[in-house]
Amino acid sequence: MNNVTIFDHPLITHKIAIMRDERTGSKEFRELVEEVAMLMAYEALRDINTKEIEVKTPIATTKTRVVAKDLAIVPILRAGLGMVNGILALIPTAKVGHVGLYRDHETLEPREYYCKLPDDIAEREVIILDPMLATGGSAIAAIDFIKARGCRNIKFMSIIGAPEGIEKVHEKHPDVHIFVGCKDSHLNEHGYIVPGLGDAGDRIFGTK
Ligand code: PRP
Ligand code: URA
Which CATH code of 3.40.50.620, 3.40.50.2300, 3.40.50.2020, 3.40.50.720 fits the domain covering 4-205? Predict the structure, then answer.
């Protein structure tokens, strides 16, 4: 699939293995979400906008490039919040927007409860963050909101994805590059990723 990157990198797979373990507590889980997000961002931002500047070293003056300050990251609440600090550690100038969505437990349809985006989101490159891409409903709804605000340069980053969800998001928004740390086997009858890691929000925030 064009525009879909599955990492399958040993360091990422290793960290996700610890996240999957049901014995891993919230503190370690949160640290791992941040670390995996940072490793993924390193690659996902390979084509980030840069601009030329002039720098005087102790030896000579030279032209070089720095990152242009035009990135926005948008975590999907709640679980996407866990990925924010990992990316801000790399790009502290990124603006942060928030989209609040939860899945209706019966229908698995996403329900919106919050949306606050930077005023100039349309001019920014946007990375949407959510550790779990299951049916794809939440990802599609978040991309719809952000496109409705005029943004056309969007990436989506998740730590674990189900094949069904990855395909659905790609089909609905083929222009959005999807980055997934690990592609799992399938969804179960409750819409959970198998083997997955359970409910990411609950594991980050210790709510169950
Ligand atoms: C989880 C997860 C995603 C969504 C993925 O959130 O963080 O946002 O489910 O599922 P989908 O691809 O089928 O839409 P949840 O709805 O459990 O809300 P929470 O983050 O508040 O726990
Ligand atoms: N949301 C989660 O947090 N985990 C899943 O497996 C599916 C959706």
Answer: 3.40.50.2020
